[in-house]
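re: the backbone from monday

yeah here it is again, tokenized this time
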């Protein structure tokens, strides 16, 4: 079952990413180490598999 956009945002915040805002349904997150991720869609919408992989990869990179 696909994860929700709100779950991905929660994971990013726990990993230390900061919400830098955005326009409309776009949200830009940045980590103090310089990594960035942009998510878009309503909070209750299902995340696309490629978006889940990107978030997981960015979180792993931030922990190294």
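seq for it, each position gets an aa:
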């Amino acid at each position: 079952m696909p994860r929700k956009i709100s779950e991905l945002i929660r994971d990013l915040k726990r990993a230390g990413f900061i919400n830098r805002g955005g326009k409309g349904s776009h949200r830009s997150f940045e980590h103090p180490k310089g990594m960035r991720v942009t998510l878009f869609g309503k909070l209750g919408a299902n995340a696309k598999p490629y978006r889940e992989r990107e978030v997981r990869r960015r979180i792993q990179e931030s922990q190294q």
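The two ends are 29 Å apart (CA to CA). DSSP finds two helices and three strands in the chain.
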